[in-house]
Amino acid sequence: MKTLKTKIATYSIAIATLGVLASGCDSMTKTQKGAAIGAGAGGTVGAFIGKAAGNTALGAIIGGAVGGTAGAFIGRKMDRQAAEIKQTVPGATVTREGEGIIVKFDSGILFDVDKTALKSAAQTNLENLAASLKSNPQTNISIIGHTDNTGSDTYNQDLSVRRAQAVKTFITANGIDGSRLTTVGKGEGEPIADNTSADGRAQNRRVEIVIVANEALKQEAKAAQ
User: Fold this and answer.
1) pLDDT in tens, the chain (225 residues)
2) Which helix (H) or strand (E) holds 217?
3) What architecture is domain 2-223?
4) CDD domains, alphabetically (predicted)?
5) Is the pTM of this model over 0.90?
6) How far apart are alpha carbons 68 and 145 in whole angstroms?
C-alpha cells in the first residue's frame, strides 16, 4: 500500500542520513552529536525526506530541526502547546512530530464540497487555534492544502491552494502576524488513504497546519544548553 511504502521511505532515508552524520562524530559529546545530526537533517535534507515520503508536513518539521539539547528544549515547549490545542480545538487531529506539531483538519470540517468559504463551526476551531498561536509567538506556521483525486490535477491543485489561503486569511484576521504564515497547495499529490473509496477520499481532503520553532526560539533553546 502506498502509505506504508512512503513511511518506509521516510524512515530509510532518515536512518541513512543520521548514520552518515554520526559516523564522523566519534570525538563529539552526545550533545554535540545531537546538534550536528539536527542541523544535518535540516534544510535541503529535510525537504528531500519530506518529498521522498510524500509528506510536505513532515519535511517542514525535519527541515527546521536543530537537534540535541536545544531540540529537546523546543520539544518540551511543543508538548505543552500540542496539549493546549488538543483541549481547545476539538475539530482537529493534533500530532507531535520531532520538534514540531501537525494540526490536521478534515476538509469536511472546514469547507463544504468544492468550496473555499469556511463553515461557521470551522471558524470557531480556527479562532481557538489562533488563540494558541498568539500565546506561543515564537513559532512559524505552514498551512498545507490537500484534495482527493476527483477532478483534474490542475483543478485540484488550485482548490488546495485557495483553501490553504482561506485558512491563512482567517487566522491573520484573528491577530496572527501574516509573516509567520506560509501556504502551499499539494492538490491530490500526497494522499494518506486509498482514493478508490469514499472514506479514503474524505481522509485525503484535508488541511494540515505545521507549527515549528522560529529563529528566536531556536536561539533561546541553544542559549539554554
Assistant:
1) 444 444 444 444 444 444 434 444 444 433 333 344 444 444 445 544 555 456 899 999 998 899 999 999 999 999 999 999 999 999 899 999 999 999 999 988 999 888 999 998 899 999 999 999 999 999 999 999 999 999 999 999 999 999 999 999 999 999 999 999 999 999 999 999 999 999 999 999 999 999 999 999 999 999 987
2) helix 215-223
3) 2-Layer Sandwich (3.30)
4) OmpA_C-like
5) no
6) 31
